[in-house]
Amino acid sequence: MSDNMSKVDHAIEMLKSSGVRITPQRHAILEYLVFSDSHPTADEIYKALEHKFPNMSVATVYNNLRVFKKTGLVKELTYGDASSRFDFSTKRHYHVICSNCGKIVDFFYPVLDEVEALAAQVTGFKVDHHRLEIYGVCPECQAKEVDAPSKPKQESSIS
Ligand SMILES: [Zn+2]
Ligand SMILES: [Zn+2]
Question: How far is the CA of 119 from the centre of ligand 1 (A)?
Fold first, then answer.
């Protein structure tokens, strides 16, 4: 936890040094991003913080996320049709994505530099980055899949 707090402090320092003014909302959004490892959407961040900042709108959250993104603190993830998710990333990692509920989990694996080198060699491109996404069904969705058919539907009418 103190590790996360220092991450927040470090990020705040970085924002300040790039000339970004730290408002209480900005601080709260950043803190939420650091502490949640769920890659939240702007809407999720808004819902989690709206009780603290009744005057804040989803647009405000978006604008703040865009500021963070510009400084390189936060990455915007666009996978498929779902709305953008935001990732506070200090370390390079890959994503494992649930094709059922859309949950994204971080997966740390040595960066596949070899693939880039090979691609450059084979195609003559000047390769600068690559994307790798792994898809499957998350443990929670697997549990639901197992539960669903065996649960008797009439139970609720008895109680
Ligand atoms: Zn899932
Ligand atoms: Zn991530």
Answer: 33
Over residues 120-136, the mean pLDDT reads 93
What pLDDT band is residue 159 in, cutting at 50, 70 and 90? very low
Inter-residue contact 139 to 74 (CB < 8 Å): no
| End-to-end Cα distance, the chain | 43
Q: Pick the ligand that lies closest to the CA of residue 104.
A: 2
Asked if residue 154 is part of any domain, the answer here is: no
| Domain that residue 113 falls in | 91-149
pLDDT band at 62; cut points 50, 70, 90: very high
> Would you say residue 25 has pLDDT above 80?
yes
Rounded to the nearest angstrom, the distance between the alpha carbon of 87 and the centre of ligand 1 is 18
Distance CA 142, CA 138 (A): 6
143 CA to centre of ligand 1 in angstroms: 9
Answer whether residue 125 is part of any domain: yes
Q: How many domains does the chain have?
A: 2
Point out the ligand nearest to the CA of residue 98.
1
